[in-house]
Amino acid sequence: PPEQAARVKKLQEQEKRQKVEFRKRMEQEVSQFIQASGEPRRRFQPMNKIERSILHDVAEVAGLTSFSFGDDEDSRYVMVFKKEPPPSDEELDAYRRGEEWDPAPPEERRRLRELAAQQEEVELERGPAPPGPPNDYKDKYRHLIGSDAAKAAARTMEANKAYGCVPVANKRDTRSIPPPMNEIRAKKRLRQVEDE
């Protein structure tokens, strides 16, 4: 029908207009962001897939880096970064986890890395750890169960006869599958003979 085709065309034109308007709005926001000197990154409101792709394109044209964060489609948002300095991997990982990134001074991060390297060296000098768990699992949960609770629980624990393994004496039929199946077949044959 021609009226349906006209309606579809009108909707497509309207959608195209909305995309163009959205792109213009994003271009304005990105240019404001570029001019804002004290702002290394900007987080945009959650938006749908098409709007995010438009924003990524605008950011790329402007010479910026952009990433999408958020798990589900409704809460996914775009963050735009100025390329100097680029966002570190730690920063991007924090956003992926949905955390705010705390830019600890680089000296602090460097100091922490050095400390970790020193600990590794100490462990290497000690040699390989003996096989088996490094500590008793009860030590890990001592704050929850206390020191003697586990021993008391171990002493009182007995197999519950009503649960789990059923003793052979309690089973009704101790035969394997073929004998009962043969019985069933024999009964069927008998029934068929009687019916005839």
Automatic annotation (TrEMBL):
Matching InterPro entries: R3H_dom, R3H_dom_sf, R3H_sperm-antigen, SPAG7
User: Pfam families from the xrefs?
Assistant: R3H
The R3H domain extends over 20-83
For this chain, one GO molecular function annotation is: nucleic acid binding
This one is known as SPAG7 protein
Task: List, as start-end ranges, the regions of compositional bias called Basic and acidic residues.
Answer: 93-114
Record region (Disordered): 81-140, 170-196
The protein's matches in SUPFAM superfamilies, at most eight in alphabetical order, are given as: R3H domain (SSF82708)
Q: What is the lineage of its organism?
A: Eukaryota, Metazoa, Chordata, Craniata, Vertebrata
Q: Gene3D superfamilies annotated for this entry?
A: R3H-like domain
